[in-house]
Write the structure tokens for this entry.
Amino acid sequence: MKRSAPMINTARLMMCAMRPEDFERFAEIWRDPCVVRHIGGKPRTRGEAWDAFLRNAGHWQMAGFGQWAVFLQANRKLIGQAGFFYGNRCLGEDFDTFPEAGWVLAPEAHGLGYGHEAVQAAHDWFDRIMPGPLVSMIDADHEASQKLAAKLGYKLLRQTEYRDSPVKLFRRDGPPARN
């Protein structure tokens, strides 16, 4: 399935496909120890960041969905990424067969509501275009991401270990009822 990343605008954010000129900032974000603290714990080398950058771009072509680059509308600064991917993590049929949601923000964007705004917009798109179950793997100690997942309708599937770290696996069968 071929699909390019659609542009999504929210009140404060612009979400679009990653472009070659975004790589330096992407690598800078993934090099930050605060960013990876709950995602494997080890900053990515430039080569590892490049592999992930290319994987993000290719995912749209292969699966019809992927991760968006998240920019602040005010200054067009890349602050992270949000979207979906197939992780193929060998965590079981109840997890690996579904698209996985993920989000990453630079430390200066934490605690300002940008994560919720970006991830909600990504989920709204997914629910319209490719409705169905989604999963997410979150570090067992990462309470902020767990709260965000709950707001989006994710329910705990189970706790396990991934690469020797405790994680919680979540599943979302559709959007939560809105009040």
In short: The two ends are 35 Å apart (CA to CA). The mean pLDDT is 93.
